């Protein structure tokens, strides 16, 4: 049996991202995606939001908020492709595409938040 | 990956030499790609796994929002306009249903995923569950307080 030393790390990231998304994503999506556009609640003004987002703590929050759940997706979607679509024979390709996409997303988030 | 130990004799007398690394040639029925539609529990499992697609989708929406915000007021106004389009609203409504499904299944699995011990005794499942839901309520209230109080 070949050992896969990365597996525990990937699983930990998957788990952390899943917990973060479970705790924080519904409220963010409800406000940003539904309540503000539909006028149920008054959205913060762009200036206020820009000031809030520029704060170092918020930047760090947003980086984790974007990056961890992306890794969660990569891990879960990878196994969905293996089992659901029976792509086990594309093991390496699927893994590289999933984690690669998550890494690109995390890097983009890091860049955008750093350059604010 | 799969360890093919045991040799051909171990799996019901396939001829030695008929062994191939990935698909040993014994009779095996092909499972349809739609196997998960056969039973409600299978379908629920696949729907649960697919919540991750909406999780990633919202991560990207958030990234686009931050980028629009950093690009200036006009870009951000255009971003907000796009959020008001019926297609995007419908997508977000569906996504919210999937995200809530993710939260519920995630928290309900938590007692099985993490066994917490205090003083050598296992914390009851109900307590782990209650702690998770309490954390969810606190997190939701905190985010709502910050975003609704910001003027």
Overview of the structural elements:
Chain A has 116 residues and is an all-alpha fold. Chain A has helices at residues 7-35, 46-54, 56-84, 91-114. Helices cover 78% and strands 0% of the residues of chain A. The mean pLDDT of chain A is 93. Chain B has a domain at 39-91. Chain B has a two-stranded antiparallel ribbon. In chain B, a hairpin with a 2-residue loop joins strand 1 (117-118) and strand 2 (121-122). The radius of gyration of chain B is 25 Å and the shape is flat. Mean pLDDT of chain B is 86; it is low at 1-14. Classes of the chains: A mainly alpha (116), B mainly alpha (151). Chains A and B meet through helix 1, helix 2, helix 3 and helix 4 of A and helix 1, helix 2, helix 3 and helix 4 of B.
Quickly describe the structure.
The complex is a heterodimer of chains A (116) and B (151). By secondary structure, chain A is mainly α. Chain A is built from four helices and no strands.
Beta-strand share of residues of chain A: under 5%
Question: Looking at the structure, what is the overall shape of chain A?
Answer: elongated
Q: Main beta sheet of chain A, described?
A: none
Order of helices and strands of chain A: HHHH
Low-confidence stretches of chain A: none
In N-to-C order, the SSE pattern of chain B is: HHHEEH
What do we call the CATH topology of chain A? 3 helical TM bundles of succinate and fumarate reductases
Largest interface: A-B, 59 and 54 residues
Biggest sheet descriptor of chain B: 2 strands, antiparallel
Helix content of chain B: 55-70%
Fraction of residues in H or I helices of chain A = over 70%
Low-pLDDT runs of chain B: 1-14
The total count of helices of chain B amounts to: 4
């Amino acid at each position: 049996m070949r050992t896969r030393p990365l597996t525990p790390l990937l699983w930990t990231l998957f788990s952390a991202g899943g917990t973060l998304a479970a705790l924080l994503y519904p409220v963010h999506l409800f406000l940003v995606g539904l309540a503000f556009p539909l006028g149920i609640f008054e959205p913060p003004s762009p200036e206020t939001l820009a000031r809030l987002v520029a704060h170092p703590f918020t930047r760090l929050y947003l980086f984790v908020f974007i990056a961890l759940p992306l890794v969660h997706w990569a891990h879960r979607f990878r196994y969905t492709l293996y089992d659901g679509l029976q792509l086990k024979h594309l093991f390496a390709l699927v893994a590289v595409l999933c984690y690669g996409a998550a890494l690109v997303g995390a890097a983009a988030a890091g860049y955008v938040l750093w350059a604010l | 990956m799969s360890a093919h130990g045991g040799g051909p004799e171990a799996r019901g007398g396939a001829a030695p030499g008929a062994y191939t690394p990935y698909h040993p040639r014994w009779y095996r029925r092909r499972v349809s790609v739609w196997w998960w539609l056969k039973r409600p529990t299978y379908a629920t499992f696949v729907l649960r796994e697919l919540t991750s697609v909406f999780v990633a989708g919202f991560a990207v929406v958030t990234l686009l929002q931050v980028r629009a915000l950093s690009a200036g007021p006009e870009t951000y106004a255009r971003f907000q306009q796009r959020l008001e389009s019926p297609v995007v609203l419908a997508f977000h409504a569906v996504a919210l249903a999937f995200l809530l499904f993710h939260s519920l299944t995630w928290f309900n699995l938590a007692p099985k995923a993490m066994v917490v011990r205090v003083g050598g005794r296992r914390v009851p499942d109900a307590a782990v569950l209650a702690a998770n839901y309490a954390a969810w309520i606190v997190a939701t209230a905190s985010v709502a307080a910050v975003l609704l109080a910001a003027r």
